[in-house]
Amino acid sequence: MSRPGTLPTYVILCPLISASSLTPPYFHLRDTFAKTKIHCRCRCMCNSAPSPTLVSLHYAPFNQPLSIFYSLLHQFSNTLIHVKSIHAQIIKNWVSTENYLAAKLIRVYSDLGFLCPARKVFDQCSLRGTAVCNAMMAGFLRNQQHVEVPKLFKIMVSGDLEINSYTCMFALKACTSLLDDEIGMEIVMTVFRRGFHLHPYVGSSIVNFFVKCGYLDDARKVFDGMPEKDIVCWNSIIGGYVQEGFFKEVIKLFLAMIGGGLRPSPVTMVSLLKACGESGLKKLGTSAHAVLIALGMGNDVFVLTSLVDMYSNLGDTDNAAFVFNAMFNRSLISWNAMISGYIQNGLIPESFALFRRLIQSGSGFDSGTLVSLIRGCNMGVGELDNRLNQLIMARTLELFGDLVNS
After folding, report:
1. 116-150: per-residue pLDDT in tens?
2. Mean pLDDT on 346-370
3. What is the pTM of this model?
């Protein structure tokens, strides 16, 4: 018998032998009124009984279940069957799913990629507070349902629901992904009227939105008016000037950023290296190379590939090859950058030799590789052997087939 005023509950979770093969038959969550541990007798497909993992909610008082279930969702949020089982217990025990518990359910379902049950929890909330709406927005973003976010933002504003910096940030991120400047501008005006544009994260989102939609002057005005700027904000405005080809402004902004004591990120260094390569500033590019080494980015494939590209654009294929050959890990983009660098500097035999190395390494190649090689062949210097010609033709046909079928 249970004590009056208590909720006698055990949650028994039977784990799989392998965490990588989680399936519903191996997990059972059930109530029990026993005061002792009850081992689950379910068996997995291989007819072996795994040792049970038991999370006890024994005699939880009625005024505590919300925090208990919230804790359970936090602890067992990596598997859908766990979440569904805990959700079932919440419903069975008449625990209110308003506000923070509902928000938690929406988040864990969304994080697992199951937006339908997340949306169902949201729709069943009679009182949708800011936390619940924000969780649903984040779920839409995570699952690439960007078009739903501005709709929910408008509902919140028109319904006089309280919005906060996260609400604004989510809405702006969605409009940036959609490149929807019309709705985005409406959201920006709402953000300014509510005063959220002064928040660092929201300000960064506005700058990024303006940059991606091609409003660089507006982005700069917002940027200059921000009292605090994080690295994301600096990267957005610097990236905008790179995108528009204003490379000298990129260098000025970079110097202003480090002058303010902010540490550059790999994204910052990639923008700077591109600016140096495109503007022909070899001395500054060499200094940037030294800076990124000092910052501990010497093994970052993304940064080193940009360094190869910079040296190639500056006509210094020796340093480009030195950086490439010193890389511990190379992506296909790295190989393509070096092959393209040789070709743009007229070193066709070297590009073909590097392509042979790429094939011998067992790595594949893509349309970017093919474009560079065809360009090299059209320059009339050197030729590929029959085997490499066959590989190129086969890959070309494969890529064309993928294009037709898509």
Report:
1. 999 999 988 877 889 999 999 999 999 999 999 99
2. 85
3. 0.74
Mean pLDDT calculated for residue range 337-348 = 92
Residue 195 DSSP class: T
Quote helix, strand, coil % in the chain, to nearest 5.
65, 5, 30
Tokens representing 318 are: 């020796």
CA geometry: angle 71, 100, 74, nearest 5 deg: 25
Query: How much is the pLDDT for 44?
Result: 32
First to last CA, the chain: 63
φ and ψ at residue 300, rounded to 5 degrees: -80, 110
Kindly state the tokens that stand for 143.
Answer: 């699952």
Do residues 219 and 211 lie in contact, with contact meaning Cβ atoms separated by under 8 Å? Answer: yes
Amino acid identity, residue 71?
S
**Helices 65-75 and 99-111, axial angle in degrees (round to 10):** 10
Residue with tokens 């649903």: 136
Tokens of 76: 């067992």
Alpha helices in 93-125 (DSSP H): 99-111, 115-123
- The region that residue 95 occupies, defined by phi over 0 for left and psi between -120 and 50 for alpha, beta otherwise, is beta
Task: Provide the Cα torsion 133, 212, 260, 164; round to 10°.
Answer: -10
What are the distances in angstroms from CA 64 to CA 69, 264, 369?
A: 9, 46, 61
Question: Which are the contacts of 196, defined by CB distance < 8 A and separation ≥ 6?
Answer: 163, 164, 165, 168, 202
Q: What are the beta bridge partners of residue 55? A: 11
Which residues neighbour 349 within 8 Å (Cβ) at sequence distance 6 or greater? 381, 382
Residues 6+ apart with CB under 8 A from 195: none
Quick one: CA torsion of 365, 344, 287, 303, rounded to 10 degrees? -20
State the greatest distance between any 2 C-alpha atoms of the chain, in Å, as a whole number. 91
